[in-house]
Amino acid sequence: MHSTLRIRRSQKRSTHPPRRTRRAAQATAAAVIAGALALAGCSSDNNKDGGDKASSSSGGKESGGTVTLPRLDGQNLEIAAVWTGGEQANFKKVLAEFEKRTGAKVTYVPAQDPVINFLGSKIAGGQPPDVALLPQPGAIKQAVDRGWAKPLGPEAQAELAKNYSQGWQDIGSVNGKRYGVYYKAANKSLVWYNAKVFEGAGAKEPKTWQELMTAAQAVYDSGVTPFSVGGADGWTLTDWFENVYLSQAGPKKYDQLAQHKIKWTDPSVKEALTTLAHIWGKKDYLAGGTKGALQTEFPASVTQTFTGGDQPKAAMVYEGDFAQVNIGETKAKIGTDAKVFPFPAVGGQAPVVTGGDAAVVLKDSKAAQALVTFLASPDAATIQAKLGGYLSPNKSVAMSAYPNAVQQTMAQALIAAGDNFRFDMSDQAPQAFGGTPGKGEWKDLQDFLRNPKDVAGTQAKLEADAAKAYGN
Questions:
Q1: Where is this region: Disordered (predicted)?
Q2: Percentage of the chain lying above the pLDDT 90 cut
Q3: DSSP labels, 323-343
Q4: How far from chain centre, in Å, is Cα 289?
Q5: Do residues 226 and 281 both lie within one domain?
Q6: Can you tell me the distance from the alpha carbon of 366 to that of 77, in angstroms, rounded to the nearest whole number?
Q7: Are residues 224 and 163 in the same domain?
Q8: Are both 96 and 64 inside the same structural domain?
Q9: CA distances (Å), 182 to each of 108, 130, 263, 267, 387, in order?
């Protein structure tokens, strides 16, 4: 069975605090994990012969590792990304390996979110970076539409074809042309759990929704509330819905609902809401009950799951790998006290929600094309994988490159998902419906959490708000 991936678009992240907070959480999580797991000398171990065997002439080729790179002695490059802290430091180690193997000098340019606005100002000033890391497919299309992005050269395309599934290749394409190399990804279909609670309850990691409910009942019978839900932040509820809907209704229906080609009164939406009510409708299954869930913001939903030893406020919390930074605020150790399993399949394909950062060429040169070719290779991704706090959609990266079982679980789910990519539904919607606190889908799902018996009423409100926002 193949899993289904949903790529999170983040064009609206900078326009409302919850989405921006989530992106910041992801970046901070990466920095925290990277700092904790840094492995010295990774770059040199991975490519022992890289620079030494290269020709010193400008026309020479470097053949260390899996990818052949040209000599670029004396050439200078700039690459822009929003990464900071440990995430930036680890990426600079990847760039250092590229410098060693080619003779080029690469400068990292810190960018601000939204990246498109940052790049626009740089381009207007006549100083665009050679390559930029763009955090969503929509940004790639914007860069292409504005004439900024340059198509990938044959070497980069060859690395893509060899190392990436068709879906990852396509998601970086516009009008059939390849523009983006997805260097980094995030897995956002994860359920984190308190290992001591599961052990005490005799609960097992579930693979299906029914097994999840069985585990929840075992936890409840042991005296611990099963779930922590950050309902005060409406975006967490849209993520719950989208995982269930994608798995249960399938990609075709998902696309139709995302584009409002079917109504929110469709029976498939009823089915997904009814499924959610299996959890949201049981007050005793929610930390603090319904009222408590609606008053709990996302960070607290995580920390309360891992505070209190074997008697926390809840045993499980759903969200992406960025939850690690909040777990880090507790005394729980990831991989020992705090463990994770993929979001269970809900009567269909198991969903894997992911985002990503794609390298795009802005100044078409031999050096820029060589850099994105390197980033498309397992050589580059393996270096950063070993440092921790990073996941790659590059299927040629060995799972053993990831430094612990938690990272390996996330990476394996990402790769096993295959080609079935889907964008985040709420981020595809007009902001008035899918991205505004206290309005549209966020508010309607909070109301549903408050009254999970009102499936029909919730559908009617969702459809009314969607029709208004979409203009149809």
A1: 1-26, 44-70
A2: 66
A3: GHHHHTTSSPPBTTTEEEEEP
A4: 29
A5: yes
A6: 11
A7: no
A8: yes
A9: 18, 16, 33, 36, 18
Which residues does 28 contact at the CB level (< 8 Å), separation at least 6?
Answer: 85, 322, 325
pLDDT of residue 47: 37
Residue the block writes with tokens 């990503």: 356
Q: Domain of 246?
A: 190-349+429-470
Check whether residue 321 and residue 450 sit in a common domain. Answer: yes
Tell me, yes or no, whether 179 and 104 share the same domain: yes
pLDDT digits (tens, 9 = 90+) for 89-102: 999 999 999 999 99
My answer on whether 368 and 343 are in the same domain is no
pLDDT(450) > 50: yes
The CA distance from 61 to 71, in Å, is 6
Selection from 294, 332, 302 nearest residue 320 by Cα: 302
Residues near 84 by Cβ (< 8 Å), separated by ≥ 6? 27, 31, 110
Taken as a whole, the chain contains a residue count of 472
Contact indicator for 341, 190 with CB cutoff of 8 Å = yes
Looking at the structure of the chain, the number of domains it has is 2
Q: What is the DSSP string of 155-174?
A: HHHHHHHHHS-HHHHHHTEE
Q: Is the pLDDT of residue 236 over 50?
A: yes
Average pLDDT value over all residues in the chain:
87
- Asked if residue 300 and residue 182 are part of one domain, the reply reads no
- Mean pLDDT of all residues in 286-295: 98
Concatenated DSSP letters for 290-320? Answer: HHHHHT--HHHHHHTTSSSTTS-S-SEEE--
Residue type, 281: G
Q: Which of 46-60, 115-129, 177-191, 366-380 has the lowest mean pLDDT?
A: 46-60
**Whether 26 and 143 share a structural domain:** yes
pLDDT tens digits for range 4-18: 555 543 333 333 333
Q: How many Cβ atoms from other residues are within 10 Å of residue 80's Cβ?
A: 24
Q: Are 353 and 8 a contacting pair, CB within 8 Å?
A: yes
- Residue 448, phi then psi, degrees to nearest 5: -70, -40
Query: CA 49, 51, 56, 58: dihedral to nearest 10 degrees?
Result: 120
* Least-confidence region, from 2-16, 55-69, 81-95, 427-441: 2-16
Q: Is 470 exposed, middle or buried (0-12, 13-18, 19+ CB in 10 A)?
A: middle
CATH number for the domain including 118?
Answer: 3.40.190.10
Q: Is the peptide bond before 351 cis (omega within 30 degrees of 0)?
A: no
Tens digit of each residue's pLDDT (9 = 90 or more) over 137-196: 878 988 999 999 999 999 999 999 999 999 889 889 999 999 999 999 888 889 999 999
- Give pLDDT, residue 32: 52
Integer Cα distance of 3 and 440 in angstroms: 29
